[in-house]
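Appendix B. Raw example, untouched.
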Amino acid sequence: MKKMLLAASAAVLLMCACSGERGYLDYRGLSMGMPASKMVDSLQLKMPNLALDTTKYEDRYVLGDTVARNFTVAVYHQNDTIVDILENYTATYNDSTSSLWQTMHDELEKEFGWPNMGKHGDLHKEATYENEKGTVILTLLNTYSPTVTVRYSTSTTQL
């Protein structure tokens, strides 16, 4: 009886250890659990209009759109482990960013459910989506330089 109890306890501990593996958000179909350098290479293969900024940054890789020049991606990392991915879209007029924000909001809502809406208005909207894999923060700033940013974070706590 004692041996069966020990075996059952060991099995439960093994199941707990296996189920404790960390899941990661996907960024454009790529797991954020991969090394940052591999993510950059993969993004350049998927989006050939993105060019790596040759400026040396210790904590990030920056990719910029070489055609429209209104889109950048920064892959933040610590020792080649992805921490955040930040997309930044700029536009010349507010209607385009508002439309983009709404489209992205609807897509993220389908994946994550209804977001926590910290700020909501015509000039500044912010939606935070969170699950056990990470956090996505979608922000609209319609000021002098209209922008939409999307932050994909491996952190599961709101920042």
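End of appendix B.
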